[in-house]
Amino acid sequence: MESIALPLIGVEFPTFTGLRIYMQKFKVAAIVGRKGTPAQYAEMLRDMVLHAGLRFDMDVHLTVDEKFVPQGQKHRRGGAHVDGNFIFDWGGGGGTGWLNGGPGRVLTPEQHKLQYQSPLGGTIIASNFAACDVWTGTLDGIPGQGGDCEHLRDQFDGLTKFRMAANHAYVGNSLFVHEGMPLNRPFERQLVRLTLAPDFDIRTLQ
Asked: pTM for this structure?
């Protein structure tokens, strides 16, 4: 599997309000036209999709997670993992399991292949605090339950590693390996993610 992540554009986050949105569906055209998106994020989201050159008819899913995070704690999911594609919607916000500390939903082999083994699809992601490590390159193996990649960690020395910079958007394929890290100080962290359609090909941006 190939983990790909590319820097996209610098961004400016709005004032922290504690806003939380989970996987809200939009057409790219609506984001470009600032229709229905959170007003404080409208310009930022528009810039991200335009710089990524997304098709206007593409469906994307928006997540906004603003949370006060104490020093030494992680804001988002720890452990090396991939997000995969958003194909099987189980509902309930915590339906993927790991959001609540579990290993994620058990899928059939066919579902797992579609959600966690496709080189297509991906995300655009940005945060106002640098606390996410990324590994890019080729790994021998596939993600486990819920996209977990800890079983592949012995191969990470052969990959390129970087930490996502604050206030900068990145675009990654559905197999880009990353890990949320503990914050080194208390902070009102903001994270924005656009989950892209499962036919998006990041290689068109390279």
From this structure: 0.91
Confidence at residue 90, expressed as pLDDT on a 0 to 100 scale: 54
Question: Could you identify the residue written with the tokens 């959170």?
Answer: 38
Question: pLDDT averaged over consecutive 10-residue blocks of the chain (206 residues)?
Answer: 97 97 95 96 97 95 96 90 82 42 73 90 97 97 93 97 98 96 97 96 84
Cα dihedral angle (59, 125, 141, 80), rounded to 10 degrees? -140
CA distance 184 to 199: 37
Q: Collect all residues with Cβ–Cβ distance below 8 Å to 37 and sequence separation of at least 6.
A: 26, 30, 31, 45, 62
Tokens of 64: 């906004």
CA distances from residue 44 to 4, 85, 116, 124, 193 in whole angstroms, order as listed: 23, 23, 28, 12, 11
pLDDT confidence of residue 98? 44
Q: Which residues pair with 96 in a beta bridge?
A: none
Indicate the residue type of 51: H
In three-state secondary structure terms, 122 is strand
Q: Determine the longest span between alpha carbons in the chain, in angstroms.
A: 45
User: For residue 34, is it left (φ>0), alpha (ψ between -120 and 50) or beta?
Assistant: left
Report the distance separating Cα 8 and Cα 75, nearest Å. Answer: 22
Residue type, 199: D
Q: One-letter amino acid identity for 19?
A: L
Q: Which domains does the chain have, with CATH numbers?
A: 2-205 (2.60.120)
Contact 104, 96 (CB under 8 A): yes
- The first and second tokens of residue 189, run together, are 């962290």
